[in-house]
Amino acid sequence: MGMNRVTMNRRLLPLALLLPLSSSLASTFGAFQITPKGNQKINLETGLTELPSGGTAVDSKNGLTLVARRMSFKSGETLSASGVTLTIKDGGALVADAVTFDQRTGMLKATGHLSFKNAQISGLSADSVQIYSLQSAVVASGNVKARTPALKASSIVVLGAGKQILVNGPYTLSSKNTSYANARQDSHLLLSGDVATARPPASLLKPFTPFLK
After folding, report:
1. What is the DSSP letter of 12?
2. Residues of the signal sequence (predicted)?
């Protein structure tokens, strides 16, 4: 009987490490305040918190609001979410199948079927979108396409709440009866408001350099 009790207790231990919490309890992940939609589970052994029914994560400091159908996070490390709608302080909105946020670097990466829009761009799709919350930068890369303006590019970098957009070649862009195209992989087109600059000088490219790979 003693051996059976020991065996049973060992089997129950992993279950005890999964602590279910009420949906009314909010959590903190870095600058995010996270409100679960349903119950949340905390693994006391690994420190992982799971929100099987998803929830909302708000970073008021950096102007990010993330709503997801499913979410998990580990303090000091990463947040992962699926079925995501993300809004940013400049009014931009991103819809993505999956998102990961690295608390240490402040970088959010979206993958899967995704689309992005803000005041300057609509109907934008890409293989991946990265949002650097600390630098207020958005990078879309891989098969980048947009409806307005009509755009195709290998990648784009958005800075200054959309006031400056660097289009990286090869690219084509059509807007207001004007067309631009360059087949070179090292080509750039800088959009600043209504002004487009082909072959921008190094001084204008400097703010974008950390995001060019």
Report:
1. H
2. 1-26
